[in-house]
Design goal:
Layout lengths: L6 H22 L2 E2 L5 E3 L10 E7 L6 H14 L3 E5 L2 H9 L12 E4 L3 H15 L11 E2 L6 E7 L4 E3 L6 E6 L5 E3 L22 H5 L5 H4 L1 E10 L2 E8 L6 E8 L12 H17 L7 E7 L2 E7 L3 E3 H7 L6 H20 L2 E2 L8 E4 L4 E3 L6 E2 L28 H17 L18 H10 L10 H33 L4
Antiparallel strand pairs: 1-2, 2-4, 3-5, 3-7, 4-5, 6-7, 8-9, 9-10, 11-12, 12-13, 13-15, 14-15, 16-18, 17-20, 18-19
Helix pairs in contact: 1-2, 2-4, 9-10, 9-12, 10-11
């Protein structure tokens, strides 16, 4: 693998890029609104329409300043109304598709033309200024040019809301030709029926013409259900037609320029990396999903992997109306710790241990999924990775250790805390204050795994053995109680 860049270098990259971004923002986007994630070019004017053809210019956190510097003079000279995020960190969150919604991915710069003619003119000029700059695709918008980062859609410019007839909630609204408010469908690629698309069809580039006529997505893998969508890619249930009989599989897509980090790694890199991790772990006996196939299409990476027959721990817990018994908690925690110990023994840190990534098969076996953030123990990734509530306190203060393994150990403790109490760790109260009759040995295990000192957390194999001993003690105590009950019953019947 390539040599790992220190985290301090990425901090320097972020500070430099963000400083440049703030300078440009002060010059071209002077207006801010309290509580808003946006900066604006000017105040609204009387001739500004309420709705129309909206332009979006996409960018990654690394290309944003270059894109903005290229297009802002043109937009200012035409007194166009436009906006952009207040910081590159907000753009990073926007491009993730998780906090602000999947439909917002890539919408770095939003331009509000005053007419269809101006929209066409600006789209053409903006596309020429930003051609071939790296940028994520914008879901549901139409792309102006096949090698550009300018997109368009018809939508509302001002906030109007109407009740969604399908869901009963308020959604953004447009006015139809009769002045009636109708939903502004931001998660749809179609236009309102009363408007005609005035934009020319995208020009095909030589690269597109050279693309193969058929791909594995057309011949071998047939996706039929989207499991998840975010900026860096999608996860789908699919049929694998490569064998004599079709089989179900999971198809993971990593998008080129999707959710680019400060290190330049995008969704395509992540999925390709996961395929290599799965292949490596499987090769040394770790029971991760089987990698069926991996391939590349137009820069996007795809892996087809085994569909694990079972339910996630997260789904199992959400179905329950009562907490697990202490015995069940210890049994589950022992299975999870054993699973993580096997990953660590293979020389890897998982870095995304959480209930949603732990599958429980129909036979009761624990199997891990999702290894996009995994890294070798001797080459720890300098950038954070994981899910809130299951990452340790040191995660927010930069990486200064020698291994990412302690993060997995903390995650085991967080899951055990959740199994015992139904709540995630985060306050000063221990599980014993939220649930009675927790064995002291179990409480000690939780406290050790959630220790603020990364090096003080016991290894996963050690935790497995400790939980095994706890279960043995619980079984012995149960047997003694059962024996005592039988003896009393026999005595009551006069038996000796």
């Amino acid at each position: 693998m390539n040599q790992i860049t220190p985290a301090s270098d990425f901090n320097a990259i972020y500070k430099s890029l963000n400083s440049h971004w703030r300078q440009l923002s002060r010059e071209y986007l002077p207006l801010t609104v309290n509580g808003s994630m946006w900066r604006f070019s000017r105040q609204p004017e009387d001739e500004d329409p309420d709705q129309g053809w909206k332009l979006h210019v996409s960018a990654t956190v690394l290309s944003a300043s270059d894109v903005f510097e290229a297009v802002s003079p043109l937009l200012r000279n035409r007194r166009a109304m436009f906006k952009a995020p207040v910081s590159l960190y907000e753009l990073f969150k926007l491009n993730s598709g998780t906090l602000y919604g999947y439909s917002q991915v890539g919408k770095f710069l939003t331009v509000y033309p005053r007419s269809s003619d101006e929209a066409i003119l600006l789209a053409r000029k903006l596309s020429a200024l930003t051609r071939r700059l790296p940028a994520p695709s914008i879901p549901f918008d139409q792309r102006y040019d096949s090698d550009g980062c300018v997109y368009y859609r018809y939508g509302a410019f001002k906030v109007l809301e109407v009740e969604d007839p399908s869901g009963g909630e308020n959604v953004y609204a447009l006015r139809d030709p009769n002045g009636i408010l109708v939903p502004d469908k931001r998660q749809s690629a179609s236009f309102p029926t009363w408007v005609e698309n005035p934009f020319p069809k995208p020009h095909k580039t030589i690269k597109k013409i050279k693309t193969c006529a058929t791909t594995p997505l057309q011949t071998t893998f047939k996706a039929f259900e989207a499991v998840a969508q975010r900026g860096r890619g999608g996860v789908y249930k699919a049929l694998d037609l490569s064998g004599s009989l079709p089989r179900l599989c999971i198809l993971k897509e990593g998008r080129v320029n999707g959710e680019v980090g400060w290190d330049g790694r995008d969704g395509s890199w992540r999925v390709h990396h996961e395929g290599r991790v799965l292949e490596t772990l499987r090769g040394v006996g770790v029971n991760v999903p089987i990698l069926y196939s991996s391939f590349l299409i137009d820069g996007n990476s795809y892996i087809a992997i085994e569909l694990v027959d079972g339910v996630s721990l997260n789904e199992l817990l959400s179905r329950r109306r009562r907490r697990l018994s202490i015995r069940q908690v210890v049994t589950y925690a022992m299975g999870i710790a054993k699973m993580v110990a096997e990953i660590h023994s293979a020389g890897w840190a998982w870095r995304d241990c959480k209930p949603g990534n732990i599958m429980i098969t129909t036979s009761g076996e624990f199997r891990p999924i999702d290894f996009e953030g995994a890294c070798p123990q001797d080459q720890p990734d300098p950038l954070p990775w994981g899910t809130r509530f299951f990452v340790p306190p040191e995660w927010d203060h930069g990486f200064h250790g020698q291994s990412r393994v302690p993060e997995d150990l903390y995650a085991i403790g967080a899951i055990l805390h959740l199994l015992l109490t139904g709540t995630r760790p985060g306050d000063s109260e221990s599980p014993s204050k939220k649930r009675r009759n927790i064995p002291k040995a179990v409480q000690k295990i939780v406290d050790s795994l959630l220790n603020a000192g990364p090096q003080r957390r016991p290894q996963a194999g050690t935790i497995t053995n400790r939980l095994k001993r706890v279960l043995q003690v619980m079984n012995a105590e149960t047997n003694l109680r059962n024996k005592s009950v039988r003896q009393r019953f026999d005595l009551s019947l006069g038996r000796r």
